[in-house]
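TASK: fixed-backbone design
INPUT:
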């Protein structure tokens, strides 16, 4: 594509049950818009039929681009790969389960058009609408994690972990060329770098629905994410983000 207004990046790992409905919904929505777009699916070494299903889908739509990791490398790694490959003036990433409906992008684009560099979906500020909640223990752990994020790294952002975020093209290069967290804490690293380089961030209330097929392990991944907070801080102190 010589010109592209919007890029949508979707990381996918063993998503054969969800990826085609997600792609169909996104394509149906974007095909009714007046701007050129691309959809980038990054397969993270899936061991099921995800990659082949996405490749088959892409054969019928040249705007769907498929990238494949040789092995399972993590959501952060996959998002970074997709974001840096994107050609759009505005680049969003979203989850393969489409917990945030693609229509919510209409709330976000005006901010990117009017002075903001980064827009993040939020499930926790006034105006947000959670139609299906997470189990209570995951919501509680999420609140604790966000408190720790505010304490250690990024103040003033209520929901750092919603998987729906958008960046201007220049901000993508500034942030994701420096990202190194391959796991679920990549969101925090991206926001930390956005603040470090004085990018203007807007938190926007969105509609969100929890997926029962979530791959987040509440114990193992939570411990990993807490550890990553201090890794990010130490990397900055060592000058790794210059």
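OUTPUT:
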């Amino acid at each position: 594509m010589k010109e592209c207004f919007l890029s949508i990046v979707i990381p996918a790992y063993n998503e054969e049950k969800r990826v085609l409905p997600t792609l169909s919904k996104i394509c149906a929505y974007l095909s009714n818009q007046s701007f050129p777009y691309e959809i980038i699916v990054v397969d993270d070494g899936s061991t099921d039929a995800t990659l082949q299903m996405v490749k088959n889908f892409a054969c019928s739509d040249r705007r769907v681009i498929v990238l494949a990791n040789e092995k399972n490398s993590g959501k952060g790694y996959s998002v970074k790969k997709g974001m840096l490959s994107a050609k759009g003036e505005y680049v969003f990433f979203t989850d393969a389960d489409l917990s945030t409906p693609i229509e919510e992008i209409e709330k976000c684009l005006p901010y990117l058009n009017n002075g903001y560099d980064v827009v993040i979906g939020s499930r926790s500020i006034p105006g947000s609408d959670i139609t299906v909640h997470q189990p209570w223990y995951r919501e509680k752990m999420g609140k604790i994690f966000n408190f720790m994020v505010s304490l250690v790294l990024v103040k003033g952002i209520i929901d750092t972990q919603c998987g729906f975020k958008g960046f201007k093209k220049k901000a993508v290069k500034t942030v994701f060329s420096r990202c190194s967290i391959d796991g679920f804490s990549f969101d925090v690293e991206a926001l930390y770098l956005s603040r470090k380089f004085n990018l203007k961030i807007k938190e926007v209330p969105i509609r969100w629905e929890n997926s029962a097929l979530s791959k987040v392990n509440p114990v193992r991944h939570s411990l990993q994410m807490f550890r990553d907070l201090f890794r990010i801080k130490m990397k900055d102190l060592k000058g790794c983000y210059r």
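COMMENT: The radius of gyration is 17 Å.
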